Amino acid sequence: MIIFGTRGYLYQLAILTLLCGHCGNPAAHTLRKRVTKFTLFFVPLFPVSTKYATQCTFCGAEQKVTKEQADQLLAQAANPHGGQQYGQPQQQPYQS
Ligand SMILES: [Zn+2]
Fold first, then answer.
1. Which residues are within 5 Å of ligand 1 (an ion), measured at CB?
2. What is the rounded CA–CA span in Å between residue 62 and residue 21?
3. Residue 61 CA to ligand 1 centre (angstroms)
4. C-alpha 88 – ligand 1 centre gap (Å)
5. Rounded CA gap, 57 and 90, in Å?
6. How far, in Å, is the centroid of ligand 1 from the Cα of 57?
7. CA dihedral in degrees (54, 57, 59, 65; nearest 10)?
8. Ligand 1 centroid vs 1 CA: distance in angstroms?
9. What is the pLDDT of residues 26-43, one digit of tens each?
10. Rounded distance between C-alpha atoms, residue 58 and residue 38, angstroms
11. What was the pLDDT predicted at 84?
12. What is the pLDDT of residues 44-95, one digit of tens each?
């Protein structure tokens, strides 16, 4: 019997001050990545979809962004302290 499915992972990539398109406040926004992974026997094998969004911490409005926009925001968020390294999820070798 083979058990497979998908599982969602949420990564918080950065916190940025952005002008919110919803409430109009220059508020802190979280930049998040949602990855859906294909799982086999509850072991995540590979991502099937990756989505990015920012969420305003002031009013809670979420806005979807493209990967390019997310990369740009991350570059903006890169701080000189260097403590905010975000790890690439490790590619798991495909097991057959
Ligand atoms: Zn807002």
1. 20, 22-23, 56, 58-59, 61
2. 10
3. 6
4. 28
5. 29
6. 7
7. 0
8. 48
9. 999 999 999 999 999 999
10. 34
11. 45
12. 999 999 999 999 999 999 999 999 999 999 998 886 454 444 555 555 566 5
* Measured CA angle at 19 (ends 15, 20), to 5 deg: 90
Domain-by-domain residue ranges, the chain? Answer: 4-87
What residue type is assigned to position 78 of the chain?
A: A
Please tell me the distance between residue 9's alpha carbon and the centre of ligand 1 in angstroms: 24
CA distance 78 to 70: 12
The edge-to-edge listing of strands for the beta sheet with 43-56 is 4-19, 26-40, 43-56, 62-65
Cα-to-centroid distance, 18 and ligand 1 (Å) = 9
In the numeric block, which tokens belong to residue 73?
Answer: 């925001």
